[in-house]
Amino acid sequence: MTFKAKLGGALVAAIMSTTALHGAFAADDTIKIGVLHSLSGTMAISETTLKDVMLMLVEEQNKKGGVLGKKLEAVVVDPASDWPLFAEKARQLISQDKVSAVFGCWTSSSRKSVLPVFEELNSILFYPVQYEGEESSRNIFYTGAAPNQQAIPAVDYLAETEGVERWVLAGTDYVYPQTTNKILKAYLMSKGVKEEDIMINYTPFGHSDWQTIVSDIKKFGSAGKKTAVVSTINGDANVPFYKELGNQGIKAEDIPVVAFSVGEEELAGLDTGPLVGHLAAWNYFQSVDADVNAEFIKEWHAFTKNEKRVTNDPMEAAYIGFNAWVKAVEAAGTTDTDAVLDSIIGVSVPNLSGGYSTVMPNHHITKPVLIGEIQADGQFEIVQETPAVVGDEWSDYLPDSKDLISDWRKPMSCGNFNVATGKCGGKGS
Amino acid sequence: MFIRLFSLILLILSVAVPVKAQSDPKSLIDALSKADFTEAEKLIGQIAATGDTRVVTALEAFAEGDLYFRKSDNLVFIAKAAGSNVELIDPLTGASAGAAPKNTVTKIRVNNNLRRVIRSAMGGLTLLSPDRTVRLQAADAVLRSPSPENLELVEAALAKETDGEVKARMEEARAVSVLSSNRSVDEKRAAIETIKNLGGRNALGILNSVSGSIDPSLKGDLDAAISSIESELQLWDMAQNVWYGLSLGSVLLLAAIGLAITFGVMGIINMAHGEMVMLGAYSTFVVQDAIRSNAPGLFDWSLAIALPVAFLVTGAVGFVIERGVIRFLYGRPLETLLATWGVSLILQQAIRSIFGPTNQEVGNPSWMSGSFALGGLTITWNRLWIVVFSLSIFVALLVVMKKSAYGLNMRAVTQNRRMASSMGIRTPWVDALTFALGSGIAGIAGVALSQIDNVSPNLGQSYIIDSFMVVVFGGVGNLWGTLVGALSLGVLNKFLEPSVGAVLGKILVLVLIILFIQKRPRGLFALKGRAVEA
Fold first, then answer.
1. A-chain residue closest to B244, CA distance
2. Which CATH topology does A3-145+298-366 take?
3. Which residue in chain B has the smallest CA separation from A251?
4. Do A206 and B462 touch (CB under 8 A)?
5. pTM for this prediction
6. For the segment B324-374, what is each residue's pLDDT rounded down to a tens digit?
7. So what's the architecture of A148-288+371-390 in CATH?
8. What are the chain B neighbours of A201 within 8 Å (beta carbons)?
9. What pLDDT digit, counting tens, does each position of B283-335 carry?
10. 3-class secondary structure for B116-144?
11. Which of A111, A309, B3, B148 has the highest Cβ tally under 10 A?
């Protein structure tokens, strides 16, 4: 064999192995979707679960015969909690792997990082986490809660049921808590709460020494008015926060804490005995009493082969997003981005709380808001459930965005239509 | 607000005009099965108004969320889980009503508001209990949730009370109830005086809450009492900040003390230091897990058992890292930095693969939970123990370094390696053991930190920068410097935090350290002598 032939053989082998890696051989009879969640780094703690859910949903769908008569295939990549790497991996998924849609991202920073990629390459991203709003993209579907689907109903509940008149807005120092607190402050003041009855406090990521802040909360709470804490404290910092609350003897009956980032997963690392009665607001709890939820939990336990794995709200959002995409693809008869973008608006799929979620023209969905109290077993007892609420991308309580609406249907097809000036554009353009 | 006022009126009405048919506690409790939160609130008032002390257990169970009703006949029971079934207990008599499958009973929901109402009602009901501690708790409950309905009950109990401490507590409970009732001005003035003497945040809250509605002639007394409590609290606040500072300082000391050896004494820029802390925390988790499943009675000892385990595990890992990586890189700080950083990533991902990326639950033993009051200070047990623990590690390490033969060898090697070698000290062996010791101490620190922080693969990352900060600030190579550095950074941080916030506070501390290092490049306690110049 000549040297050239050897080289040629090696080349062919190399090409074959790379294409085999990307699974291009099966391209004709499968539809590929991308899963863009961090499997390493700081965000792995939250995102790994969502990757597992996506794999489970794909498996279930394939058992039902796939989509458009083809099997689904999930392409999993690891952006390693690194925001610029999210954009790179998104580009790889769309351009190289030719996926039809991507399910992924957790933090707003990662979403902002991939947004231009999805718009440039015209693909679809389903984003399954609660976020601060103030964004609307033609290529992104926000299946998590907007502030009006989580924060505002929670505050209403506390004011009405618990008679809260004084508010501590405590959060981690980054975009989601800051925007949410800005909206909440404007909302509370529009309800007649005085400026001196609102205390806003930010802490760094991963803050672990909560002694001063908890005693500040105690101090703020001794002004003779019923006080509550609205917590947008992120991820890991919650565990030491709740431990300090418990140790300093702040009971939910005295100063309740309502959290927007604490779900079943976060409580799994915690002895919840001293926390009974503190609240969380989500669109889904594992304790929801619905047949579809019982079924989902059973599948989840079977898929992960672990009876102890909990389910949580972003998982439900992923479930809704995936099913909405499947239904839209089937309605459009193709996975072509533009066709799916048209057909998905108005699609209704069951959510896990026993009702239906509809994809709205602003690329947000309708879902009920549930308020739950933490129980000693790490689950939530649902104390209030609202009817389905439409996600509001541009908050009505911020001066910058109150005139903006988003409607991606033709002929408007605009993410930031200003109803005051009657023009498309303005903030966020 | 309106609903609560309305239910309050209803509640008072129901107390005033007891309806004959509804005063049977059994039927009232059974009515809970169909009540929503508002109705349940009314029912609790009626149940308490029966005055029947047998209802206390039922109310207690309700507050704990142990009250269920049977779907078939809407009868209410206290239910205890027993395998896949629940054991039903009659709420009044405490007699067992047999077992039932879980899906035949439904939990009666309870929320914060109901728990509050129950606590207040129970306070009134148990004031006459023969048990002293129960009476004390009852007086506390009344004290925490003042309501005029409890006033007569407290006064009746007070007349019969003989125990001095309980009596004093009841006097205070009576005072807060008087303040919210429609008693005479004189009585209220005396009540304000009692509450003023009680002092503390709770008293301040009670006084503040009535300041809007109080009789104008009492306004002066009330304001005086409020400002007196406030000025007292201000003093305690200072003391509280010092304590918080010491407690944060002791956490910094714990995190940094291992690094004071590997970086301070040996001069290795060890980026994997945080992961040693993390491995220590995971050792604690593994030990606790084993104890939970094999010998739950030993749980309170789990930390004591975890200490040597963590020390050995992390010490061994440190030994392997030194022999396998670092010894080839002595004198090349940049390569050491990169190599140890790589090691830290490997260790993180290894733990993530073995234990999963989520937090692991490490429980607090009972002696590390809760808090106690020292004057106006609230001191949490876990923080107190961590202060004690970190100081004892410091002392132990100091003794090893100064008094033992191994410490002598170690100091000799760091001061003059070639001379020490000529004197017959096996310097590579000392290097390895020293690194292992530093890592082992980091592991022990991990045991303590598992009590206040998350046990996750990222645990170490949050401490590595702080640790370097402390060692550099205190003076490289000096254990005392590390101690003073850690404590002063802790106190500084805690005095900045209330005024500028946690985020800015942390930035200010960093800026101050940078300025300080400009002035004194060798830190607080600089080593002097030839060893430094070399």
1. A211
2. Rossmann fold (3.40.50)
3. B112
4. yes
5. 0.83
6. 999 999 888 899 999 999 999 999 999 988 998 878 888 888 888 888 888
7. 3-Layer(aba) Sandwich (3.40)
8. 501-502
9. 999 999 999 899 888 888 999 999 999 999 999 999 999 999 999 998 888 99
10. HHHHHHHHHHHCCCCCHHHHHHHHHHHHH
11. A111
